[in-house]
Amino acid sequence: MSETIAAIATGAQVAAIGVVRLSGDGAVNIADALFRPASGGRMCEQENRKLVYGGLYDAGGELLDRCLCTVSRAPHSYTGEDTAELQCHGSPTVLRAALEACFALGARQALPGEFTRRAFLNGRLELTEAEAVADLIDAESVEAAKNAAAQLSGAIAAGTAEIYELLQDISAHYHAVLDYPDEDIEDFRLESYRAALAAAEERLSRLLGSFERGKLMTAGIPAAIVGRPNAGKSSLLNALLGYERAIVTDIPGTTRDTIEEKLRLGSLLLRLTDTAGIRETVDDVERLGVERSRLAMERAQLVLAVVDGSTAPNAEDLAVLRAAERCPKAVLVLSKSDLEKSCEAPETTLPTVTVSARTGQGLDALERVIRELFPLPAVPAGEILTNARQAEAVARARESLRAARGAMAQGCTPDIVLTECEAAMSALGELSGRSVREDVTARIFERFCVGK
Questions:
Q1: How far apart (Å, rounded) are the C-alpha atoms in residues 288 and 430?
Q2: Contact of 303 with 324, CB cutoff 8 Å
Q3: Measured CA distances, 156 to 115, 120, 213 (Å)
Q4: Which residues of the chain form CATH 3.40.50.300?
Q5: What architecture (CATH level 2) is domain 155-210+383-446?
């Protein structure tokens, strides 16, 4: 018997629609007690996944809402248990009253991620698919959403399952020959598996190689806007965001601290940091801001080095530019192109874009250059790793396969090779959830919202 859990599956704010979700052995009975179909009959008599219009009543029999209800019976439901959903008008007061009515009839409050955790435990989702649910909810770019949706459909699970089954077959063949020498079983020859193991290792290498892109795709690209005071950094931030986020004045040193905002450029998500102007100063507050600016530059994957294009570059400009050239990726942004230019741009190996924050000139070119610096990988949607747990498991599986192939090349006995193959199977089992520890799954589902 499974406890019946209930939660509001939609946000706490006022909305057009709000959903109360139930799962467990008593879910259909609770829906039956609280909801009366307008067409007559009872919810326990309704077909699975059929939306029914009617009245929602509290535990005392008073009408709360005119809404919709649907039931899905085990095992053909999201959680693999009996489930019910009340699709109400999105009043937080009504939703809370409906939830309290569910509690009064024996349900308890669902924990964060408990619906999806039950789906995993009941075999409805592999662990990578369950993690994709959270990634889909948290997606801040279309690329991240498409990748999560494909993972939810089993893109990673399918590929790694093939490798797991290969290793399982190798192990089973070896042990069958060892345990039943008198049976008519084909001789075990390691050499016959060499090509398959090499292909499996290559496939895991490609998957692992996608992780860096996956981190940037989900967390965003750390990007710092740097330059000397009054170079046009805050104006550039405001122009890129499309609204006045930072204070802009003609007084050098207006920005004393870092300002962070997110910016979507097509499929890219930038975590933009506008920094204090970098220069030598005796002002204690400004000096702290400059230190934070340098730290932001060191941590950034992308640096936009802003130089006032209307004046001759000075020593501070050149110092910022040389520092930017040492960063992973950087762009020289010549600002204030709407003003009369009186000098040549500084020499640099960085891509250079001329912009005007006032008129918007050059912003499209800047966005294009940034997208070219972070091209989409030639990897199908769903095959981009997006979290460290998955990457660590894939890395261990790959290293075990590499060790197995190394042992084969050195002429080691089959049992040594099989030990490495079984270690790879164990790592892949952790990836899919076949052999993951309880504390690991608890930590994974803690990141989910209540109601999912």
A1: 45
A2: yes
A3: 22, 15, 16
A4: 219-373
A5: Up-down Bundle (1.20)
CATH fold of 219-373, please?
A: Rossmann fold (3.40.50)
Residue type, 431: L
Give CA angle at 155 (149, 158), nearest 5°.
150
Nearest to 319, CA basis, from 296, 294, 341, 336: 294
Return the exposure string of 298-307: e unless at least 16 CB atoms fall within 10 Å of the residue's CB, then b.
eebbbbbbbb
354 residue type, one letter: T
Q: Cα 124 to the chain's mean position, in Å?
A: 21
Q: Which of 24, 18, 159 is nearest to 78 (CA)?
A: 24
Query: What is the phi/psi pair of residue 22, to 5°?
Result: -130, 145
Note the pLDDT tens digit of each residue in 135-157. Answer: 888 888 788 888 888 888 888 88
Residues of the chain with CATH 3.30.1360.120: 5-110
Question: What is the CATH number assigned to the segment(s) 5-110?
Answer: 3.30.1360.120
Q: Write the DSSP assignment of 78-137 as a string of letters.
A: SSSS-EEEEEEEE-HHHHHHHHHHHHHTT-EEPPTTHHHHHHHHTTSS-HHHHHHHHHHH
Half-sphere exposure of 3 (CA within 13 A, CB side): 11
- Block residue for tokens 């629609």: 17
Q: Which two tokens stand for residue 302?
A: 């992308």
Q: At what angle do helices 142-152 and 155-179 cross, to 10 degrees?
A: 30
pTM for the predicted model, two decimal places: 0.75
pLDDT, one tens digit per residue, over 398-422 is: 999 999 888 888 888 778 888 888 8
Residues 147, 134: Cα–Cα separation, whole Å = 12
